Amino acid sequence: MRSPSPVGAAGAPGRWPVVGHAPALIARRLEFLSSLPSVGQVVEVRLGPIPAYVVTDPAVAHQLLVPGDRDYDRGRLMTKASAWFGDSLLTSYGTAHQQQRRSLRSAFTNEQVASHVDHVRDSTTALVESWTADEVLAVDEQMKDLALTNTAQSLFSTDLTAANLESLRLHMPALFKSVLFRTILPSGLERMPTVGNFRFKKAMRSLDGVVGTIISARRARGEDAHGDLLGSLLAAQDDHGHGLSGRQVRDHVMTMLVAGSESTAAVLSWALYEIFRNPDIARRVREELATVLAGRAPAAADVSSLTYLNNVVSETLRRYPVPFIMRRTLKPVRLGEVELPAGAEIVYSPHLLHHDPRWFPQPRRFDPDRWSPTGHGAATKGCYLPFGAGAHVCIGKKMALVGLTTTLAVICSHWRLEPVAGQRIREVATGTVHPNRMPMIPRRPAADAREQTG
Hints:
Elements: E1 10-11, H1 22-27, H2 29-34, E2 42-47, E3 50-55, H3 58-65, E4 72-73, H4 75-85, H5 94-103, H6 110-129, E5 137-138, H7 139-156, H8 162-184, H9 195-221, H10 229-235, H11 246-277, H12 279-293, H13 307-319, E6 325-329, E7 333-335, E8 338-340, E9 345-348, H14 350-354, H15 397-414, E10 416-419, E11 427-429, E12 433-435, E13 439-443, H16 446-453
Parallel strand pairs: 1-2, 3-9
Antiparallel strand pairs: 2-3, 4-6, 5-13, 6-9, 7-8, 10-13, 11-12
Helix pairs in contact: 4-8, 6-7, 6-15, 7-11, 8-9, 9-11, 11-12, 11-13, 11-15
């Protein structure tokens, strides 16, 4: 029996035969999403022949994520991503998700967060000490390597070899990009003998091999080595006192690798870009670092005192969030003024919500003072969702935030990064919004004072 049609959802313009709105979602994703609030609170788009309903209002987004999360599973995006993430926090829902979160609490304690800060500080210090003044850096590539190194070290500690890290570096971007395209395009294309599908399968085999080898070696030694995240996963227990299976450990490791590297790299790149193309922001960051740190390296206890730098991080997460996330109805629901049947695909877009001028005036302007006590910030519930909300809010939120602030503190204490003149930096939206390139020139910080007095 056919499900009833939705009631009250306006259709987005520009639908193509067969492929629906896929061309707009591929070619101009951010602009297309940002145009939808003028259509309605809940707008129907087509992912190929499949209808999906985009939430454009913060109150409706809050309704979707917080009190009503028991009425939804993770949707088409995570169904496609399960080929990579398996049965992890990103793909599970309901009771299974709640049990997983309880099992993984030991991986995100204050002690683990402090250990992560130590890894981040030390690896970032090693990176910036390798830079040479006045030589152009591909900052986006540097941040990709740094974020992946930091995440892998927090996961695997001394089990991580140079060969393993190189394999992760080589294959993870292909997987991350492919999941989004598999969501937007019609089902079945992932089974066709294309170059992209061959690359996806090759990358999956390689990463599964690396992660599986490390997990097997750790299990064979029978130790909770070095108090890293993998050790916490191997020691985790469910509500019945049972440990995680080998497959469950693998799925959580793959999820943490992606969540802790691809998105982190993009945020770091954009934060550095915004800090150093705005002289006043750069000055305020450096003044705060000089006051709080007084020349020493940052520790976990310092992060909360770096108020302005934390505001920079919050504004970067607002200005450059993920394009969209999905849910699927488990039963008929009402969202705002729209009634949806069971099995309906729903999209909420942090980018759309974060760039709506009703909630964030001049949304394309980078303004850390939005997040000061006298600023307006996320004054409307549901308009700011860099880590989601409700039952599925990112379990690693605190670790991610302190890692971002620590990395920026180390870099900004050592260098001033000058954007290369004439280079157009574009936003490229895949699973994250990352720069097409980010060439910058490191200058010694002492130059700031000379320029201000010159």
